[in-house]
Write a structure and sequence with these properties.
It contains nine helices and 13 strands. The chain is of the alpha/beta class and 345 residues long. The structure holds NADP nicotinamide-adenine-dinucleotide phosphate.
Length: 345
Amino acid sequence: MSGCSIAVVGATGAVGRVFLRILEERRFPADRIRLCGRRSVGTALTVNDRRIIVEEVTPELFDDVDFVFISATTEVSRQIGPLAARKGALVIDDSSAFRMDADVPLVVPEVNADDLCGHRGIVSIPNCSTTPLAMFLNPLNRLNPVRRVIVDTYQSVSGTGAAAVDEMMSQSRNVLDGLPVEPDVYPHRIAFNALPHVDDFGVNGYSTEEMKMARETRKILHEPDLAISATCVRIPVAVGHSEAVHVELTRPMSPEEVRDALAASPGVTVVDDPQGAVYPMPIHAEGKDDVFVGRIRRDLSHPNGITAWLVSDNLRKGAGLNAIQIAEEVLSRGLLKTPGRRTQL
Ligand SMILES: NC(=O)c1ccc[n+]([C@@H]2O[C@H](COP(=O)([O-])OP(=O)(O)OC[C@H]3O[C@@H](n4cnc5c(N)ncnc54)[C@H](OP(=O)(O)O)[C@@H]3O)[C@@H](O)[C@H]2O)c1
């Protein structure tokens, strides 16, 4: 059995490095791996015990590649995504460049893997706050349609990339040492602070991140009219996004029914014993694949309301893992755009 050929653009970033670890963990069948970056061109990374030199992105790179995983910037995705797709590769893109395009599936495999069937060479993964929300809402929506969602996020700095993690760490040291702090990645100090500011603000007062959560969730769930209001907040946590979610359902649902529905849902783990101080936290979710849900309770402000707390590793389920799961699903369903050019698995 021989594997496929992949290119990873953004291999040295926060997502790229985790992606490569997951590739190894899941024994993804890639026997030819090309790694691309910008500043790190010429350095070496080890994948599956092989030393691979990071190279520049060139159009020729895509001539004989089955999958192109892009975790770089939206501009890079826009420049190379369509080109790689035209050359016959399947592009799995982490950026927001194509997520809302009508001909690009936006996929969380546990929720809408069937959407992959209509792909035309590019598949997007959702924003790292959208994915856990969709995984939480989907099993409830199937049993008892969701009418309205209010969600407040507590997002880690790795969601912004590797430079933001460095900034939080160095600022924290400076604050503790009584030294001055110069914000760079964020508009204000992130150490020992909370910023209700994730991405740019639009004229309606919502940030782009908040609007992404609403639009992407509707697309993934195939619920174009679902009412969603999000407030996204950046907090000084390295890895793991948390969300407080308030859901209005069509009919009342008990917390026990919600727990049962979530516990039966792939990729979701219920962690819910508040009396015993047991609930999901970023320090436990980091490095794990599942979306963790706890604090499940009736929303006292609405007869059909449920409130819960979600945590997931934004670099894994929010990015790298979701991308690899999509590729696995594509292989198992025989959905490569030009399957003839790679050896049969
Ligand atoms: N972080 C998350 O939780 C998360 C979740 C979902 C989606 N995403 C998306 O994933 C993408 C990457 O995010 P990240 O957090 O990993 O960012 P990051 O830590 O800043 O890493 C960016 C990566 O992109 C590479 N890169 C930048 N410009 C490039 C170019 N012109 N050509 C080739 N490579 C280039 C960098 O290479 P060098 O190091 O060599 O310069 C680096 O490997 C973004 O689109 C982001 O929106 C991130």
